[in-house]
Structure formats: structure tokens, C-alpha cells
Write a structure and sequence with these properties.
Length: 498
């Protein structure tokens, strides 16, 4: 199970199926509730309409015996005393109304007397009482030409209707009904209540059919959603599998020149592939640079070590031939080279400069004074030009630039410090031959010496300018080289002011 859902495709398919299932269940429940509510409301409206029709017939004076001849749905008429005075023909059982009686009885709540007697026959409707409580016509009224039927009265057919649910059995068939209870006030008959029912068979049939359709259709729809999601996810993740396979091959072969395939799309997978290739390119450059660095460092270290060993072996065999000064010079050169390599290693490891203030003008005057005898002069303002960073590393940068200028200058090297907006600018210029434009970036690479003919004793190991630029970048600045007005080299260090 863990392996089955360990893939993105499986989890995406499961998530999509669950979301659609929850949405379908919620939508289905809402549809069923709305359908049931609408159909029940329709049944209630039909029951209310039947009740009002019966009430209107009562108000018009229709006798109980003829009141419900045309009604197929269950209808009851109950007087104020709770006596059933009229009911639908063949009504055998009923619930949910004011009374469970199904056979009409003589009314005892008529305003004019004891009311009419119960009717006979299958209708079971009581005959309509006259105004005096008798079923006989008054001869005096006939003589006056007046109608002996009950007078139309204030029929509260627009009164409040109470809707209830119940059941009824008519002619041996039982069903659920929606009943409407409508009170009616009639002169001569008193207060009556009409209960009229409307069948809920349509509601139950529609809800049952909709439920069956949902129970069959929802699983099929979920299956379609799961299948489509599985196929779409597999197609979308196919480039990712290609990237993974290629990365595994690169890891196994350790060949950083290989690249992962980039799909012909403009989505996240394509951007992932391009970013991966950029990372591989940067890693390849870094590894190659590290290899060159190790090879060059080994080569540079081999020379002073071999020279020092030779002098020591000669001195051991022939003490009178020992060149002490040369041995010390090789040792110092070896010490400087080791210090440069250590600093480069710390810079490559991401060492951040300390957060301290340093007066660049004072530092320039100090470094120039140490080399004043070699022809170095300083042109700095009296006011402090402060930057933030490591004073030791910045002194190393300035020292490397001055030493580089002295190796190439004919007679003089000048160091200057000035402000330029939000920048502190330090310039080191010499009156030598300058740096060719094509080599103005290459001189900052490690172990690069433009004059291959000069000796290492005169030219150094080719790390000074590389260290200077790395330190400048770590301090948020830049180090560039251009030509002076006289044709010499001008190195410009820019650092943000403190």
C-alpha cells in the first residue's frame, strides 16, 4: 500500500477522485433535497387548492352528502366538536389529520341546533341541516319564495393553512399524503375544518429514480475521473521521469558534460529541466575550476619546494656551498603561496567579511608609506572615506594591487582614494605598458600570468589579482582594470560607503 501511493501519480489520482466524490455526494444530496422539497411543496399546494375548493362548496350550501362525490384524494370535514361530518368515499384509514375516523357522524356543533343526521350509503356524508336545525323545508319560506339551503357566510378560505404529512388507505390502496388543514366558519353549520390530502407518490418515485441514477452514475463518473487523471498525470510526469533517469546516469558516470532533456513545453517541468541543466553547467565549471586550481597549486608549490630541497641537500653535503639567502627566499615565497591558497579556500567556502568600519584613505596612506622607497605615492583626502568590511582583507587587496603595479611600472605607482556618490573609489595606477583590452578579464583568473617569459620570482604565482577581485566581490564591490592617459594600467576598486 505504501509503495502504491508512494508516487505522485497515485496520490494525484486519489486526491482528484476524493475531491470529485465529495463534490458529487454534496451535489447529489442537494439535488435530492431540493427535488423532494419542491415536490412536497407542489403536493402541499395541490392539497391546499383541494381544501379551498371544498370550503368554497361548503360556503355555497352544498350538502355533505354531495360535497365529496368528485374527490379521489382523501378529504375530511370535521366540526368544532371534532366530529367527522363528511369524508371521501371508500376511505378506510387515515392518519396525520384531526381525526382518524373514516365514517361521518351527525354534527353536534351546528349553530342552529343539533345539526343534521348522518347520511347513509357508501358516501357516508351527513345531510345538510337547515337554518332551524331540521332537514325539512319551512312552508313559510317556500311561500315567501326564499331558498332553504344554508346561506353563504364569511368563508375564511383565505385563512392560514396548516400542512402536515400522513397516510391514507382508499379502496384497499395505502399511500403517503400531504394534508392541508383549512378552518372554515359557516353560518348555520358553525366552525368546520377541511382536511384535504395530495398524494406523495410522485415525490417518492422521483426521489427514488434520482437516487438510483446517482448510485449507478456516480461510481462510473468517479471511474472516468480516476482514469483520466491517471493518464493525464502520467503524461505530465513523463518528462520528470526522463530528467530523473538522466540525472541517475550522470551520477553513475560522473560525466558532468551531459544534460537532461528539456521538454518542448512552457510549464514548470520545462523550467525544472532548464534549471537543472544550469546547475549542471555551474557544477561542471566549479569542478573544472577546482581541478585546475589543484593542478596549478601543485605545480606552483612544486617549484619552491624542489628548489628548497635542492639547496638543503647541497648544504648537507657541502655546508660551504649552502645558499642561506636563497633558501630563506624560497621559504618566504612558499609561505606567501600557502597563505594565498588558504585565503582563496576560505573565500570559496563563503567566508563573510567582518562587519567593521575601515578608513580606506588611511589604509592607502599606510600601504603607500611601506613602499615609499619603491616609488609608490598616495593621493588621498584628509577626511575619512569609510567602508564596511575586514580591514585585513582590504589591506591584502591594496597590497596585491600595489605589488602588481610595482612589477610592471617603469618608475612610479600612484594610489588614490575618492568619493563617488554612494561609493568609495580606490585607484592604483602605474606607468607601465598597461593590460591589453582582450586580457582585462583574464588577468583576474587564478594562476594567470600574461608575460609567460618572465620568471616566477619576478612575476609571482598569479594569485594576487584573483584574490583581490574575490575579496572585492565579498565586500559588495567591484574590481576592474582600464588604461591610464599615459598608457599604463589603472585598477579601480569600488566599495559601498559605510
Amino acid at each position: 500500500m505504501r509503495r502504491l501511493f508512494g508516487s505522485v501519480r497515485s496520490r494525484a489520482t486519489l486526491a482528484a477522485t476524493l475531491v470529485v466524490a465529495v463534490a458529487l455526494v454534496a451535489a447529489g444530496a442537494a439535488v435530492l433535497l431540493s427535488l423532494r422539497s419542491n415536490l412536497i411543496d407542489q403536493a402541499g399546494t395541490q392539497a391546499e387548492r383541494t381544501a379551498r375548493n371544498v370550503a368554497a362548496n361548503l360556503a355555497s350550501g352544498t350538502a355533505y352528502a354531495q360535497l365529496l362525490d368528485d374527490e379521489d384524494d382523501p378529504v375530511q370535514v370535521v366540526d368544532a366538536g371534532g366530529t367527522l361530518v363528511a369524508a371521501t368515499e371508500d376511505l378506510q384509514a387515515i392518519s396525520g389529520t384531526g381525526t382518524t375516523e373514516v365514517k361521518p357522524q351527525a354534527s353536534t356543533a351546528a349553530t342552529g341546533g343539533t345539526g343534521g343526521t348522518g347520511g347513509t350509503g357508501s358516501t357516508g356524508a351527513a345531510s345538510s341541516p337547515g337554518p332551524s336545525g331540521s332537514t325539512d323545508e319551512d312552508p313559510d319560506d317556500e311561500a315567501d319564495g326564499e331558498d332553504a339551503s344554508p346561506e353563504p357566510v364569511e368563508n375564511d378560505s383565505d385563512g392560514d393553512v396548516v400542512l402536515t404529512d400522513g397516510s391514507a388507505t382508499i379502496d384497499g390502496e395505502s399511500a403517503d399524503y400531504r394534508f392541508a388543514a383549512l378552518p372554515v366558519e359557516l353560518t348555520g353549520r358553525g366552525e368546520l375544518t377541511v382536511y384535504a390530502g395530495a398524494s406523495l407518490d410522485a415525490e417518492q418515485s422521483a426521489v427514488s429514480s434520482a437516487t438510483t441514477v446517482m448510485l449507478i452514475g456516480f461510481p462510473l463518473l468517479l471511474g472516468v475521473v480516476a482514469g483520466v487523471t491517471w493518464l493525464v498525470t502520467r503524461r505530465a510526469l513523463r518528462p520528470v521521469e526522463g530528467i530523473r533517469a538522466e540525472m541517475a546516469a550522470i551520477t553513475a558516470s560522473e560525466d558532468l558534460t551531459r544534460r537532461v532533456p528539456v521538454p518542448d513545453t512552457h510549464d514548470e517541468v520545462a523550467r525544472l529541466a532548464r534549471t537543472t541543466n544550469e546547475t549542471l553547467a555551474a557544477l561542471e565549471t566549479s569542478v573544472e575550476r577546482q581541478r585546475r586550481f589543484v593542478a596549478d597549486a601543485s605545480h606552483e608549490l612544486r617549484s619552491p619546494i624542489a628548489s628548497l630541497r635542492t639547496q638543503l641537500e647541497v648544504g648537507a653535503a657541502h655546508p660551504e656551498l649552502l645558499d642561506v639567502d636563497g633558501a630563506v627566499e624560497d621559504t618566504v615565497r612558499l609561505q606567501h603561496l600557502a597563505a594565498d591558497l588558504l585565503l582563496l579556500a576560505r573565500l570559496d567556502a563563503g567566508e563573510r567579511p567582518v562587519d567593521a568600519r575601515c578608513d580606506l584613505a588611511a589604509l592607502a596612506r599606510e600601504q603607500a608609506a611601506q613602499r615609499a622607497g619603491a616609488g609608490v605615492s598616495a593621493e588621498t583626502p584628509e577626511a575619512a572615506v569609510e567602508v564596511t568590511g575586514s580591514r585585513g582583507q582590504l589591506a591584502r587587496v591594496l597590497g596585491n594591487l600595489l605589488d602588481n603595479g610595482l612589477r610592471h611600472a617603469r618608475s612610479a605607482v600612484t594610489v588614490g582614494v575618492r568619493r563617488d556618490g554612494q561609493w568609495a573609489v580606490l585607484e592604483v595606477a602605474d606607468d607601465g605598458d598597461g593590460v591589453p583590452e582582450a586580457d582585462r578579464e583574464r588577468v583576474f583568473e587564478r594562476f594567470v600570468r600574461l608575460d609567460d617569459a618572465r620568471s616566477r620570482d619576478d612575476g609571482g604565482a598569479g594569485l594576487g589579482l584573483a584574490i583581490a577581485r574575490d575579496v572585492a566581490v565579498r565586500h559588495g564591490g567591484t574590481l576592474t582594470v582600464r588604461e591610464t592617459a599615459t598608457g599604463g594600467a589603472l585598477f579601480e576598486l569600488r566599495l559601498p560607503l559605510a
